[in-house]
Amino acid sequence: MGARAAVDPDHVVLTEPVPGSDIPVHLMYVPTLDGLYVPIGLRRPQGEGRFPIVLLASGNGGGGMPWVREAVRNRGFIMERLLRAGYAVAWLRYRAEVELGYNTGGRLVEDIRQGRQLLNRAPLEYEDEIDVVKYVKTLPFVDPNRVGLAGVSHGGEMIFKLTSEYHGVAAGVACEPANHEFLDLTPDETAHVKPETQLRDIEEMQMRQVAKVRARINEKVARERIRTIRTPILVLGREDDHLQGIFRVSYDLLREEGKDAEWVSYDHPMHGYLFPVRGAGGAYAVDAMQEAAIEVAIDFFNRHLK
Length: 306
Hints:
By secondary structure, the chain is of the alpha/beta class. It is 31% helix and 23% strand. A nine-stranded mixed sheet has the order 1-2-3-5-4-8-9-12-13, with helices on both faces. The chain has a two-stranded antiparallel ribbon with strand order 6-7. The chain is globular, with a radius of gyration of 19 Å.
């Protein structure tokens, strides 16, 4: 009692070294709209100045700070490349995806009841990412006008959801964006409902062909969502991926609605090839195709964040 806290309880930041690097990671807890916290692991280039920053998201949420620390250690190749290019960079985590919560919940509305916060629904994972964007803009070493996002799979879909309603991001790289909910896609017989949970199992849903995807999306809703996007987006596809048609249609609709969008697709065996992982021996096994994809992504960020 009476001892001074080693960490400011209102601004928790813990710093730890990153194996093989002289740039540490700052582990932070970021407040979200409803007062709960999500973890991020942030690294910044050496030196002074206000840096552009890229926030990284991969897949569904959950896992908390242990997930962030593991990502920094074992998915850090993309961080090193961005740091070398002059960017601050952070892995972030968020609450778990809610099945069809984006489609059925509607826009999040905040009000006041008895002097306290009142929401019309619980926040969703992409809204956590919005709160992280707003938070990093307040950091003294971040340029608030130069925030970019890179997301893989569900993390890529979050970029579409986020930029459809929030316009504070300067550029987004969506790798294999699993945009079935954003496009309001009706699954076919390759998806089914799990009897024990009554939630959809779409892990093996086959949506390779553009024509098939076009026929199964709610194009009116998808276009309404895309029309409000102002952020330049690079969409990275993956040849022979079972959702390649979704990736391509997402890009096609951006272009058809006059958005600043680019498309590159790679024939790579790894889902999430933009974020290389350490192998069993502890080294990153990064091939020429992954190097090319990372260069394309950094070039895109350079053009829009620098």
